[in-house]
Amino acid sequence: MFLRHPGLVAVARALADHPSLAATLDACGVIGAQRVAFAAAVEQLARSGIVRERTG
Predict the structure, then answer these.
(1) Helices in 1-56 by DSSP H: which ranges?
(2) Is residue 22 part of a domain?
(3) Cα–Cα distance between 53 and 56 in angstroms, integer?
């Protein structure tokens, strides 16, 4: 899977800087339907092992 939307790339890069996906989406200014779509995309990235939940 390739990240093609610049906003989704920004979200992926910012994940490590925020305590949650919701906080990351807020910080990146993602709202409305795009928020739902980006959250689903990040969940898919997690399922495929490209991103993973932080522990500790």
Answers:
(1) 6-14, 21-27, 32-47
(2) yes
(3) 10
**pTM for this predicted structure:** 0.86
Reading the chain (56 residues) residue by residue, the pLDDT tens digits are: 567 899 999 999 999 999 999 999 999 999 999 999 999 999 999 999 988 887 76
Q: How many domains does the chain have?
A: 1
Q: Which amino acid is at 37?
A: A
Return the number of other C-beta atoms located less than 10 Å from residue 2's C-beta. 4
Asked whether residue 39 is domain-assigned, the answer is yes
- Per the structure, the complete domain to which residue 42 belongs is given by 6-47
Measuring CA to CA, which residue among 45, 46, 52 is closest to residue 1? 45
